[in-house]
Amino acid sequence: MKAMTTRSSRRAAIALFALAALSGCASLPGPNPRDPLEPYNRKAQEFNDDVDAIVLKPVATMYREKVPPIVRTGVANFFGNLQDVWSAVNSLLQFRMQDAEESLARFQINSIAGLGGIMDVASDLNIDKHKEDFGQTLGRWGVPAGPYVVIPFLGPSTLRDAAALPVDWQGDLIWRMPHTDERTSLYALRTVDRRANLLRVGNLVEGAALDKYSFTRDAYLQRRQAEVLDYKDKDKQSETGGEIPKEDGYEPKPEDDGAAPAARQPASGAAR
After folding, report:
1. CA–CA separation, 197 vs 20, rounded Å?
2. Is there a contact between 262 and 223 (Cβ–Cβ < 8 Å)?
């Protein structure tokens, strides 16, 4: 019953967030077609930046400084191994059978030979890692990304990806652990580990971007666009010298400050 209450609260929070965003931006004059919620999104990013500066970044910095790299690598590998299961499910939903097989093989090998996923044996065996979520699955079957949104505490997203979040939560193995204390501890550790792995990237963005918001938005949209390309579009991309086909009306504009595609995380998830 407690778990059902928690799930209902999260879904209600997302619904309230969407309603607040839409109502707060309904009267905005001439919004950016790619980002009609920009005034709200900027405020949400400011809120997230404040939370990050006060809580996440200091904790992640301490974690990086105090925890040995080999331990941080093991932590990142452990969470990456759990992610492979949901990636396999979404690859199946996308009819990408080879990717699904590889994700399942990675989970089996790393869970057994990698001591519960702490060691990434599968990467040493040259088994590719695939990161797939339900938002990508929806995009695979033609669901448009919709407007860019910034979710409090969670960060950049799109309307499609925000709508897919409840499904992704259901597919998260940590979410299915029976004890609340265990789930909370693992969620906290995963959040800190991910933030620690992004410390250098964050410092680079803060130092290079004239408009951090525009830089983050454009990088996120281009990365997500690339992640939902199907195989024939990837073939077209290689034929056109790396140009990404347009999707959902998204097209970078010359005046956007710092527009650049975001690089994927290392396949092994290793901490640096």
Report:
1. 32
2. yes
Summarised one tens digit per residue, pLDDT across range 212-260 is 899 899 999 999 999 987 554 554 554 555 554 555 544 444 334 333 3
Q: What is the DSSP string of 157-193?
A: EEHHHHHHHHHHHHH-TGGG-S-HHHHHHHHHHHHHH
Distance (Å, rounded) from C-alpha 96 to C-alpha 63? Answer: 37
| C-beta atoms surrounding 124 within 10 Å | 12
- Decide: pTM greater than 0.85: no
Helix (H), strand (E) at residue 92: helix 69-93
Indicate left, alpha or beta for 264 from its phi (over 0: left) and psi (-120 to 50: alpha): beta
Q: What is the pLDDT of residues 135-153, one digit of tens each?
A: 999 999 999 999 999 999 9
263's tokens:
């690089």
229 sits in the region (left: phi over 0; alpha: psi -120 to 50; else beta) called beta
Contacts of 164 (CB under 8 A, 6+ apart): 133, 134, 135, 137, 138
